[in-house]
């Protein structure tokens, strides 16, 4: 999403040189027109599984197995599985860097989602559900690490805003699909799991069949000690570190609330007569998604046009804090509707512009997938602690009001974290 030229690329290479695929003469060229729609489809499929499974079907399955301990059990499963996400994302990114290819990893992770979802649907104890969802997180993060690296690999800096908007739109579109499918299969979550696995596998086949990939130079394997040092090396870069911290704080607050959305609707919100919590999710997600689409497109376009990233990222994080205060002061259905709309505006703009900001502060272009994988720890890492933090807050406070307040404070901290970034305006 960048017009600024600092913060990425290698010595002697311009940002555009570091970001677009080479042609036969060695010069860099822009991606084909079909790449952006494919990024949209690929990311929409991924988010549909994340939202539909983790946000609806998994919560229902956990409640079905042990309704009395659903909050603590769900927190345990979400936290343990997020460990696998944290590990597999940067590792898969580094392996795809070494191979010089992204498409095989996208295809492999996508197809593997089908058997992983089958095993999850067959699980009938908390232990088996945990193991199966850990496997699901592992294969999905192989897919995610590779598809996330497509933007810094193949898109020139001048088109990062449009590319990041295509990626960002995957969240509202995928969330809507995930919520609707989750609600449709709320009484048959086993079939629902298979539907989500098939969606991801189909998107992976479509992306790899239709996207042209130029093989990047293969990377020589490093000793394990050097690999570990390389993973942490990106965080020694000043701007990358602050981008990492800001993302981690906002995501921590976001998932502390969103992970428990179904239970919030069951136990906190006063729903209209006759409305079930699963149906409420199917109403809230499309509302959030419409708001996300609007703010993602506007955020990506305006941040490119004005060449301002930090302003949009900080303002979006603050707006997210405002959204989280709404259900904290009211347990009404109208308050949840307002929260869904305002939070969608905030999170859509944040993810679109922050993704572009991150691609501009990558320490080394040749390590793009690995470093994007390190950054994705800021996505997956907070999910490890968010369920535990949320369950403790809910248990100690006896409700969800305190959870909304804590999440709002984290969003404000995330907004302040982008201020020290120096190489991007």
Compose a concise summary of this entry.
The protein has helices at residues 35-65, 70-99, 103-122, 126-148, 150-154, 160-184, 189-210, 224-233, 238-258, 261-267, 277-306, 310-329, 333-360, 368-397, 401-417; strands spanning 21-22, 28-29. The chain is mostly helical. It has one domain: Growth Hormone, Chain: A, CATH 1.20.1250.20.
Which labels suit this protein?
two-stranded antiparallel ribbon; disordered N terminus; Tet-R_TetA/multi-R_MdtG-like; mainly alpha; 75% helix; globular; MFS transporter; 425 residues
Q: Can you characterise this structure?
A:
This protein is mostly helical. The chain has one domain (33-417): Growth Hormone, Chain: A, CATH 1.20.1250.20. It is built from 15 helices and 2 strands. It has helices spanning 35-65, 70-99, 103-122, 126-148, 150-154, 160-184, 189-210, 224-233, 238-258, 261-267, 277-306, 310-329, 333-360, 368-397, 401-417; strands spanning 21-22, 28-29. Strands 1-2 form a two-stranded antiparallel ribbon. Strand 1 and strand 2 (28-29) form a beta hairpin. Helix 9 packs antiparallel against helix 15 (401-417). The protein is globular and about 55 Å long. The two termini are 12 Å apart. The model is unreliable at 1-29 (pLDDT under 50).
